[in-house]
């Protein structure tokens, strides 16, 4: 690459499984730790990233413990610095945090829940964060990571909806398109960027790969 062309990769990792994931409870900004399955998953994805030909320069993580513990496992395995940012947190889900679908219906929000499940961009939990606000802080965090690492690669460990927003940005897709994207716990996705004098080119090189979890979750090797 010439000096005026810079290439970078973002390795996106969704945090490992928690008990609230298993119970179908809304997590949002609530600080829920990994369970044993989630810790096993974090070890699996760390073992996979260690095999990269070009070792990432750093790991960046949400400051919530389910992401931070996943990220710490990865950073320790890679032997690289770990940085935390609250801007990488999951979307805040207001009064629904800690509740499952049955409990949300019981509190009188059944109609709103149905609308939310159909269109989570337009309809949000009571007192919840808008997806546009989440996207703005995620793009800001990603830009700060770019400035800290103008070339090479970094790992970003965060949460389902906020990582899907970065995939939308890489595809130049509108944010509501994130409803058509799924990211499993401890999945690996890769975004590739090249900065050139005439602008930035972006590509999604890998999406929701869970082949490293085959012996943990029974997921197929795909």
Task: Write structural notes for this entry.
With 222 residues, the chain is of the alpha/beta class. The chain has 2 domains: 175 residues, Rossmann fold (3-Layer(aba) Sandwich), CATH 3.40.50; 36 residues, no CATH class. Helices cover 38% and strands 20% of the residues. The chain has 7 helices and 6 strands, in the order E-H-H-E-H-E-H-H-E-H-E-E-H. A hairpin with a 2-residue loop joins strand 5 and strand 6. Helix 2 runs parallel beside helix 3 and helix 5 packs across helix 6. The chain is globular and about 60 Å long.
Give the gist of this structure.
With 222 residues, the protein is of the alpha/beta class.
Q: Characteristics of this structure?
A:
single chain; 222 residues; alpha/beta; Rossmann fold
Topology pattern, helix = H, strand = E: EHHEHEHHEHEEH
Tell me, briefly, the overall form.
Answer: globular
CATH architecture of the largest domain: 3-Layer(aba) Sandwich
Poorly predicted regions are 216-222
**What would CATH call the homologous superfamily of the largest domain?**
Phosphoglycerate mutase-like
What is CATH's topology name of the largest domain? Rossmann fold
Q: Mean of the pLDDT scores?
A: 94
Rg, rounded, reads 17 Å
């Amino acid at each position: 690459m010439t000096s005026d062309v810079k290439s970078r990769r973002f390795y996106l990792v969704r945090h490992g499984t928690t008990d609230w994931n298993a119970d179908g409870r809304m997590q949002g900004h609530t600080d829920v730790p990994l369970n044993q399955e989630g810790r096993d998953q974090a070890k699996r994805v760390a073992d996979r990233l260690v095999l990269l030909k070009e070792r990432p320069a750093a790991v960046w993580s949400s400051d919530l413990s389910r992401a931070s513990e996943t990220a710490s496992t990865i950073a320790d395995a890679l032997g690289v610095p770990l940085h935390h940012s609250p801007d990488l947190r999951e979307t805040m889900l207001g009064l629904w945090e800690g509740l499952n679908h049955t409990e949300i219906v019981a509190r009188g929000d059944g109609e709103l829940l149905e609308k939310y499940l159909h269109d989570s961009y337009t309809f949000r939990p009571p007192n919840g964060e808008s997806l546009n606000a989440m996207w703005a802080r995620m793009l800001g965090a990603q830009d700060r990571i770019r400035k800290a690492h103008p070339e090479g690669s970094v790992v970003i460990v965060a949460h389902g909806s906020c990582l899907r927003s970065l995939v939308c940005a890489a595809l130049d897709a509108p944010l509501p398109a994130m409803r058509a994207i799924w990211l499993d716990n401890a999945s690996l996705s890769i975004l590739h960027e090249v900065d050139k004098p005439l602008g930035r080119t972006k590509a999604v090189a890998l999406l929701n790969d869970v082949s490293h979890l085959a012996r943990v979750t029974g997921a197929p090797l795909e």
